[in-house]
Task: inverse folding
């Protein structure tokens, strides 16, 4: 337990994290959609191009139960351990904290001593989270300077409010609900923070009842899904401000604040506009001591024939882009945008966050497009979804499944899971690595975490 | 010989002050972060005084407690008690895996910074580490405190004993302040926080070792004096 130097994967600043060595392994969630007794798993994928098993699964650990629906996950500790207000530099980045969106269990997976043979060391049952925090359906995990933060979609009865609870860094005990005063916040999805401003931001999807049986058309058309951002005092755990993006912009998901703690802006995506099925990216920013937002990117729907579309989209005669994940490079320069509906992954230069420039695009999968890959001519289904960027910003990985009940509505023929990798031109531009196409067969893949950290894991207290 | 004998407690106070100033968890790193957040050296320098005040308050409380205890208990008993307390505290730090208060954020006003420093110093037992020296620092006039009849004598002895304790805290804090300030400015201006990755050795372990060592020394001094 006792180590003499800080964990070598902790970096005081995003600038120094950019110089990290390339990752050699990735951890990827594998989900069994077939309803049989095979459990979901964390797979270990070889991402070292020099290795003979490059692009293959070289290890895995299955969960203890079947039907969990693993989704997002995160590390027990990361660069925020170097924060000067609560320094804990000598803990290890070692455990993956893996909440199951279906069963509400949380698995703690030890990646040492051999990261290709991870082991489950603790299972937190849903009752512990319900009793101690009043939440269910754990989602996003972030390693905070003072504990492990996990968001939850709602209460154990399937309604709201959703919120955040804290796990102890050492024991992984559920310490309780994070919010002291939640203001008008009810729906929950993602969260992250500006450590330099003691500010947390949270977004809105829907309560467990609103999402676990697929998107509810009537609720969507009424604008009942989430469309607001909430700003919190991270230190006092109090709600300070709500920003409504507008009821027509349904489902506000991923939050990507600038990694530089002196910057006070970030990006969020909304999935579908009730006006024209477009998706949007917004920037939130600090202005005169409070927060404001501005829409900076609009991605339109693409026209399509009715017979090419799943039932849910037939009346609209168009494929919505369904932007369901975004990721910001560690230097805050490039924003990656997953268009899960149209089968496109876009790269924007966001050096000026208010004037993004489209600098790259690849097509793969898509509801209508079904585009192939250099190593798998296709047709491929599913589309770019969970996207992860390496610390140096040179490589981008993504998978193609969203969430089983929603997969079934938009890709009713059944998604075949895959994971691909892009190479990034440092001056802008992306292209497929022709040697990296990982086929998960009839299983599906969701979030990816890179060994040693990645662009959506670590937060920093130094610029 | 006599000079060395009277000088070593003060030298120890200075060295312990330097040791505390060296520890990033005691404040210099926070000062650097505040400077980097604002992008100016002035913010680094302005953070140092509140941090030093918090540290002095924490160690000062221990000094006052020792000063008062010196009136009530014999020197031997004080040393034995202090030694036992230090060893117990070191064991507690190991058992709780070096926990400390976590309430503060990154945007702090000077009084919050001072309170943070006070809590960090207290939680780390910075003042306790001074116990052997403080217990040893006993001005000649205070020796017969219990023997001196009357309140006036008592008050004088108490004042004198606490006074030398507070002088000790002032010297200790000055050393801490200078080392902390030097490191903060050098890291901010020249070296950069990148150095943390290599140079931040596990001071928690050294620290708990120092606590235990101080405890042992105090116990031995106490037993010796019996």
Result:
């Amino acid at each position: 337990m006792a180590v003499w130097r800080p964990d070598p994967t902790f970096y005081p600043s995003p600038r120094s994290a950019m110089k990290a060595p390339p990752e050699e392994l990735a951890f990827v969630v594998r989900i069994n959609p077939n309803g049989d007794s095979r459990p979901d798993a964390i797979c270990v994928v070889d991402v070292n191009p020099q290795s003979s098993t490059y692009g293959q699964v070289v290890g895995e650990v299955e969960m203890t139960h079947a039907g969990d629906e693993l989704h997002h996950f995160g590390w027990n500790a990361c660069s925020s351990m170097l924060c000067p207000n609560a320094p804990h530099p000598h803990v290890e980045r070692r455990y993956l904290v893996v909440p199951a969106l279906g069963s509400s269990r949380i698995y703690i997976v030890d990646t040492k001593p051999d990261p290709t043979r991870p082991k489950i060391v603790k299972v937190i049952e849903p009752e512990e989270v319900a009793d101690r925090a009043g939440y269910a359906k754990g989602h996003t995990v972030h390693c905070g300077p003072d504990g492990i933060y996990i968001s939850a979609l709602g209460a154990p009865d399937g309604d709201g409010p959703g919120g955040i609870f804290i796990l102890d860094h050492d024991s992984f005990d559920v310490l309780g609900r994070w919010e002291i005063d939640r203001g008008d916040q009810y729906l929950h999805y993602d969260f992250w923070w500006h450590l330099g401003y003691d500010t947390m931001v949270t977004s809105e999807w829907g309560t467990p009842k609103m999402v676990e049986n697929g998107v509810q058309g009537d609720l969507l058309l009424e604008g009942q899904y989430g469309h607001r951002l909430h700003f919190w005092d991270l230190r006092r755990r109090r709600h300070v401000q709500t920003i409504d993006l507008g009821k027509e912009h349904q489902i506000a998901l991923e939050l990507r604040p600038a990694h530089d703690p002196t910057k006070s802006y970030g990006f969020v995506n909304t999935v579908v506009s009730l006006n024209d099925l477009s998706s949007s990216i917004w920037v939130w920013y600090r202005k005169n001591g409070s927060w404001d937002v501005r829409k900076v990117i609009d991605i339109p729907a693409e026209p399509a024939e009715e017979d090419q579309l799943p039932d849910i989209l037939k009346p609209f005669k168009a494929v919505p882009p369904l932007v369901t994940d975004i990721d910001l490079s560690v230097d805050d320069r490039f924003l990656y945008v997953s268009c899960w509906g149209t089968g496109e992954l876009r790269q924007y230069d966001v050096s000026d966050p208010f004037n993004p420039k489209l600098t790259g695009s690849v097509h793969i999968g898509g509801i209508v497009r079904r585009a192939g890959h250099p190593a798998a001519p296709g047709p491929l289904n599913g589309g770019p979804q969970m996207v992860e960027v390496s610390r140096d910003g040179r490589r981008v990985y993504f998978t193609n499944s969203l969430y089983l009940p929603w997969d079934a509505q938009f890709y009713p023929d059944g998604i075949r899971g895959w994971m691909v990798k892009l190479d990034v031109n440092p001056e802008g531009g992306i292209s497929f690595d022709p040697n990296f196409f990982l086929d998960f067969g009839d299983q599906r893949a969701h979030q990816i975490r890179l060994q040693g950290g990645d662009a959506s894991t670590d937060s920093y207290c130094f610029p | 010989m006599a000079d060395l004998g009277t000088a070593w407690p003060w030298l120890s106070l200075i060295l312990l002050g330097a040791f505390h100033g060296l520890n990033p968890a005691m404040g210099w790193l926070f000062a650097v972060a505040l400077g980097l957040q604002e992008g100016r050296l002035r913010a680094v320098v302005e953070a140092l005084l509140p941090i030093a005040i918090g540290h002095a308050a924490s160690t000062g409380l221990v000094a006052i407690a020792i000063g008062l205890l010196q009136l009530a208990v014999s020197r031997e008993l004080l040393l034995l008690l202090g030694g036992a307390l230090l060893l117990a505290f070191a064991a507690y730090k190991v058992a709780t895996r070096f926990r400390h208060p976590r309430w503060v954020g990154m945007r702090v006003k000077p009084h919050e910074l001072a309170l943070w420093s006070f809590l960090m110093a207290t939680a780390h037992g910075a003042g306790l580490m001074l116990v052997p020296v403080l217990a040893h620092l006993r001005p000649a006039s205070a020796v017969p405190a219990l023997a001196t009849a009357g309140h006036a004598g008592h008050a004088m002895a108490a004042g004198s004993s606490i006074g030398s304790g507070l002088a000790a805290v002032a010297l200790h804090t000055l050393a801490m302040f200078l080392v902390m300030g030097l490191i903060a400015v050098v890291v901010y201006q020249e070296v950069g926080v990148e150095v943390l990755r290599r140079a931040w050795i596990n001071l928690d372990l050294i620290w708990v070792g120092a606590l235990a060592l101080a405890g042992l020394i105090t116990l031995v001094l106490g037993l010796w004096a019996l």
User: Anything to note?
Assistant: The radius of gyration of chain A is 20 Å. The domain at 14-450 of chain A is CATH 2.130.10.10 (Methylamine Dehydrogenase; Chain H). Chain A touches chain B at residues 2-6, 8, 10-13, 16, 82-90, 145-147, 170, 195-198, 234-235, 261-262, 461-463 (CB under 8 Å). The mean pLDDT of chain A is 96.
